[in-house]
Design a protein that fits this description.
Helix content is 67%, strand content 7%. It is mostly helical and 195 residues long.
Length: 195
């Protein structure tokens, strides 16, 4: 399987194991429905939701028009009633921020910073990249362990080692990129407001 994937020409796709834009959007919309069932998502009439959506729209407006056409993610911004200090982005566009975090953020700028960070995770397709990389590593591990007739325990240990050695550091790299590019988006936002 890995050999077949390696032989696919680069012109077909930059990464054949990476979910497409459409797949990311569909997955994100399906996951958003589950979030609506599992969490107390505030109604759109709530002033906090209206404010988060207003700020989110300003951030999305900083994405170049050509990019928005090429990658038509369906950005949405919602608020979850919870004391947790958290925000997260789903593939394809849905973004959630918890009231616990909103309560701690004292300025509009701080909220914009969090939302821009989450938008970058979607723009740069961090979930899709992590999914593709994880799939390739797992295929490689399975082929190697299968070739040496390793047992189930070896597969479990290899999976854990993969998570610790690759998945966690990769997440940190994405977090750093989201901070850096999110900051750049915020600078654009304030520059365009001043003009």
């Amino acid at each position: 399987m890995v050999a077949i994937v390696a032989l696919i020409p680069a012109t077909v796709s930059a990464d054949p194991l990476r979910p497409s834009i459409r797949q990311q959007i569909d997955l994100g919309q399906a996951a958003a429905k589950e979030v609506q069932k599992e969490y107390k998502v505030l109604p759109e009439s709530d002033p906090r939701v209206r404010e988060v959506r207003r700020l989110g729209a300003q951030i999305v407006a900083q994405i170049p028009e050509r990019e928005r056409k090429d990658r038509p993610f369906v950005y949405s911004f919602d608020v979850i009633e919870s004391k947790d200090l958290n925000a997260f982005a789903l593939p394809g566009g849905p973004i959630y921020i918890y009231t616990g975090l909103l309560d701690q953020l004292k300025t509009e700028d701080a909220v914009i910073g969090i939302l821009a960070h989450e938008v970058v995770h979607i723009r740069n397709q961090h979930w899709a990249s992590a999914y593709a990389d994880n799939t390739k590593r797992r295929l490689g591990i399975a082929l190697i362990l299968g070739a040496v007739n390793a047992g189930d325990i070896a597969f479990d240990v290899a999976g854990l080692a993969d998570d610790l050695a690759f998945t966690l550091p990769y997440s940190r790299r994405h977090e750093t990129e989201a901070d850096r590019v999110g900051y750049d988006m915020i600078c654009l936002l304030y520059t365009s407001d001043a003009a």
